[in-house]
Amino acid sequence: MLDSALPAPHRPARTELLVRWGGAAIGAVAAWTVSQGAGLGLGVLHALPVFAVCATAGVLAADALTPGPGGAVRRAGLAPRRVRDVLPTRFAVLLGAEAAVLVALLAVAALTASPDDMGRAGRTLGVACGSLTQSRGPWPGLFYGAPVLVALAFGTAACGYALRRITGRPVPGGDAAAVAADAGRRRERARAVTAAWGLLVAAPLAGTALFASGALRSLSCVGPVVHTAGLLLLPVAVVAAGTALWSLFTVLAPPAAFRSRS
């Protein structure tokens, strides 16, 4: 259906949908290209931030290109506009908790990692049990953890800028309905940016927890505490994988105004 055939309130939503999906499509192509350039799993680690940043750029472009409701622009107001006012609170809290778990897990893994058989530091977990030495991998030491942390820092800065840009955009004047519609659009775009950041957090956490769990459970000369730790990481990986899928769905979901079209 052409945009001209849509009711007027839904034409901006169609534009936003196309621009947002365009950013995600560019990100998918760029991520696939980047993933082919490095081996040993590093390509995937590099591809995740590329996709997330492109998806965030698509949301920002939609925010810049989609016209807001008509009417005079209020240049000042008594109510402060804060990022936390437009964030999806429960989703943001979940992602914050997962980010803390990811950083803690990578820190522990970095402190316990060993070089692999090719001398590459931080790729395996080695333990000595008397005269027996066991080495298991892949292990999320600095070989894998450093790119994840760099990507998380860069992606957090990009998503933080996007949230400030969305929050700080001038508020249109007019009646209460126009102001409420503008607030809804801000929350929708903030949710998409938060979800893009969620991909940077949840997807690496799922992989890190899964590989760490496998390495810990495969050690035969350690006590039950280590095996229990490996088992506890499995539900962490499952929750993180579910969060990553939900984040991807949220990034690609049509705006509310478009979904409500009859």
Entry summary:
The chain has helices at residues 11-35, 42-65, 83-86, 89-112, 142-168, 176-217, 224-252, 256-259, and strands spanning 73-74, 113-114, 124-129, 132-136, 171-172. The protein is 68% helix and 6% strand.
Notable characteristics:
262 residues; mainly alpha; three-stranded antiparallel beta sheet; two-stranded antiparallel ribbon; 5 strands; 6% strand; disordered N terminus
What does this protein structure show overall?
The protein is mainly α and 262 residues long. The protein has one domain. The chain is 68% helix and 6% strand. It has helices at residues 11-35, 42-65, 83-86, 89-112, 142-168, 176-217, 224-252, 256-259; strands at 73-74, 113-114, 124-129, 132-136, 171-172. A three-stranded antiparallel beta sheet has the order 2-3-4. Strand 3 and strand 4 form a beta hairpin. The radius of gyration is 22 Å and the shape is elongated. The protein starts with 10 loop residues before the first helix and ends with a helix. Mean pLDDT is 80; it is low at 1-9 and 71-79.
